[in-house]
Amino acid sequence: MTVAELEGPASPDEFDVDPPFDPADSALPSDRFLDRELSWIAFNARVLELAQDETLPLLERVRFTAIFASNLDEFFMVRIAGLKRRIAAGVAVPSASRLNPREVLSRSLTASQELMVRQADTYHDHLVPALAEEGIELLHWDALRPDEQERISATYRNRVFPVLTPLAVDPAHPFPYISGLSLNLALVMRNPDTGKDHFARVKVPPIINRWMEADHGRFVPLEEVIAAHLDLLFPGMEVIAHHAFRVTRNEDLEVEEDDAENLLKALEKELLRRKFGPPVRLEVERSMDPSVLDLLVSELGIRPEEVVRLQGPLDLRSLNEIADLDRPELRYEPFVPGTHEHLAEVETSKPADLFSALRKRDVLVHHPYDSFATSVQRFIEQAAADPRVLAIKQTLYRTSGDSPIIDSLVDAARSGKQVLVLVEIKARFDEQANIRWARKLERAGCHVVYGLVGLKTHCKLALVVRDEPDGLRRYAHIGTGNYNPKTARLYEDFGLLTADPEITHDLTDLFNNLSGFAQDFSYQRLLVAPAGLRLGILERIDDEIAHHRAGRPAGIRIKVNSLVDETVIDKLYEASRAGVPVDLIIRGICTLRPGVPGLSENIRVHSILGRFLEHSRVYWFAGGGEPQAWIGSADLMHRNLDRRVEVLVRVPSDEHTQALGELLAESVDPDTTSWHLAGDGTWTRHVGTSDLQSVLIARARARRSR
Predict the structure, then answer these.
(1) Based on CB atoms within 10 Å of each CB, which residue in 183, 505, 515, 542 is the most buried?
(2) Cα dihedral sign for 417, 475, 649, 365?
(3) CA nearest to 324, candidates 211, 207, 222
(4) Which positions make up the binding site?
(5) Beta strands 183-190 and 197-203, pairing class
(6) Is there a single domain that holds both residue 291 and residue 161?
(7) Is residue 540 scored above 50 in pLDDT?
(8) Which segment of 7-21, 53-67, 283-297 scores lowest on mean pLDDT?
(9) Domain of 386?
(10) Residue 476: enclosing H or E segment and its boundaries?
(11) Which residues have a catalytic role annotated?
(12) Where does 541-611 show beta strands of DSSP type E?
């Protein structure tokens, strides 16, 4: 299927794209927004810079190369695919950056292909030689010694050859379906009896490690091993040429929730269709014969501008296998998070009693510097095992494959507790896993709901109701990251553990809204999307403007993954023009132009990337001398503010509010290494004397040693 063959009506929401925005409606400059897609490409370029940074441990640079490749795959599967479908479906309205989607598509393809070439050059010119110096050799088949080739050949015959399925193309064998992101060999063979050439395809099996070890520290790509033994697959045929290629397909989902009798079944049906999405990119080796490339382009229905010629090997996601090698001296120094100091106070030979700790004070945990296992995970586990706990209510957006959180909820339900779990089965690329969790939880007796029709539930919430001697008491966790013990060791996130009556009352109302038909959307301590989160942020920015004009302390510090929402950006421009200092820490996409005279000269935008993925969302306001801080799940994007259930909670403690404000100030300090955004959209890396994540690791270790 080609893009032009897509049928059915389309709307902007169908593609998870930003709604039309007309800058002409404002007195502000019409070119005040950067393009979202190009900003994302600039983010992934920053990831590639880490792979090129020779001051980082070598295997960490290898890991960043794999992360870059994985990021770019998803960009094509979702964003490029969405642009193509918008154009084909006739909803190609200009973005807020004033660029036509066709122009955005063209620029995105050009920029991303340039980055792919840079990645290949980084691999060949820098990583491969550096690895070789450390005794890790990534070799071609011809570079192996005869004894190594013999050893690999034996492994191939025993473990690889039986798995392969050669697919020939002739009148009786149509061109095979090429699955998305699979690595393949395109073969041209000649029948020595007839002299006729034939085409065949061999899929490189993904269930076998990509890098085969020939000898200690000497590796060869699996596809080269397959190519060296093609005579076993096609006996009697003469192999004329073989070339690696890879296809990326549109893998975004379209589920018409309003028409679905059962959302779970509708999503399962759509997951089957995902495998057959139209192609959006074809990666081939530079050496590929033009006639073979023409055949692939024709059969796949791909456009010439969507073909990327690269110096192999293709699909460098597989470098994760090399990054996983047992060479600790080539990695970051190990860091094991410890128990938060306020929980450690009540920790003896047994795990901490979190309920006792939370009756004394709120606890603000900062992962991965504070252990997830001894805080958030322990909170759910203790609630499940405690006979005084009557009910547990929780949202699940993403979790790990062997989740102790899921097991605890199952145990709680089986012990007779009321357990409500809101599983977001539309979490992109985790849909199948979340369907499995939902069914497991249902079988255990949990009440499982899928949120609200038309909205994704992205908030990270847990509420525990406990029967205590002085009556019922509620405890809660509100976080910025998922309930995933594995990513909690790699993602930077905050979580508030609290027994604050106002917050837990708000969460009770919110869960009732999510599971039933309650219509109470007023909250004391929460900002909740889509009803009031954007408005709440705008009001607080207005407050800072008023404070500044009145001569009171004013300032805004925001840390999010992405900043795209034009209404919020325009309000930040207004704050800057009024003289309010605005500091933004944006990991990924930012369409605001900082430092533009008369528009944004009081706005600074920094980006921090490193060992841990900066994932927390923090909003801090000076408040005229009475600062307030909010944490939660919401980025400043249309999907977060308009098409998701998101929650920000106001941090109750003055101590925590101050700590969050100081951390954000440290993030934008000139001595802190970060990337700085200029008004023209370019990012420049500024290497300071302090790496923030290293500093926070050192502080965490120092606290544990006291």
Answers:
(1) 183
(2) negative
(3) 211
(4) 71, 398, 428, 491, 587, 615
(5) antiparallel
(6) yes
(7) yes
(8) 7-21
(9) 341-524
(10) strand 471-479
(11) 458
(12) 556-560, 582-586, 603-607
Distance in angstroms (rounded) separating the CA atoms of residues 494 and 492: 7
442 — pLDDT class (breaks 50, 70, 90):
confident
Q: Which two tokens stand for residue 209?
A: 């490690």
Together in a domain, 492 and 534: no
The tokens of 118 are what?
A: 């840079």
Contact 62, 327 (CB under 8 A): no
CB within 8 Å of 271: residues ≥ 6 apart: 253, 431, 432
Q: Which structure tokens are listed for 305?
A: 């501008």
Per residue in 367-411, pLDDT (tens digit) is 999 999 999 999 999 999 999 999 999 998 887 667 899 999 999
Specify burial of residue 5 (Cβ count, 10 A radius: 0-12, 13-18, 19+): exposed
For residues 373 and 516, state if they share a domain: yes
Distance, in Å, from the CA atom of 623 to the CA atom of 541, rounded to the nearest integer, reads 10
pLDDT at site 173:
65
**What 8-state DSSP symbol labels residue 126?**
I
User: Which residues have a Cβ under 8 Å from the Cβ of 111 and sit 6 or more positions away?
Assistant: 38, 41
**How much is the CA Rg of the chain, to the nearest whole Å?**
27
CATH no. for residue 157?
3.30.1840.10
Claim to verify: residue 71 and residue 162 sit in the same structural domain = yes
Burial class (CB in 10 A: 0-12, 13-18, 19+), 489: middle
Cβ count within 10 A of residue 320 = 17
List the single range of 110-119, 244-253, 288-297, 517-526 with lowest mean pLDDT: 517-526
pTM: 0.91
- Residue 217's SS3 state is coil
Rounded CA-CA distance 391/417 in Å is 5
**Number of domains, the chain:** 3
Show binding-site residues for Mg(2+). 398, 428
Asked whether 488 and 481 are in contact (CB, 8 A), the reply is: yes
Task: Please state, in angstroms and rounded to a whole number, the distance separating the CA atoms of residues 609 and 591.
Answer: 18
Q: Is the Cβ–Cβ distance between 679 and 32 less than 8 Å? A: no
3-state secondary structure 82-122: HHHHHHHHCCCCCCCCCCCHHHHHHHHHHHHHHHHHHHHHH
How many other C-beta atoms are found inside a 10 Å radius of the C-beta of residue 505? 16
Cβ–Cβ under 8 Å, residues 664 and 583: yes
Triad 38, 44, 47: Cα angle to 5°: 155
Task: Enter the tokens of residue 180.
Answer: 């998305």
Rounded Cα distance between 536 and 506, Å, is 16
CATH number of the domain residue 378 falls in: 3.30.870.10
Rounded distance between C-alpha atoms, residue 24 and residue 361, angstroms: 50
Over 90: is that where the pLDDT of 678 sits?
yes
Residues facing residue 201 across a β-bridge: 167, 186
Residue 270 contacts residue 255 (beta carbons within 8 Å)? yes
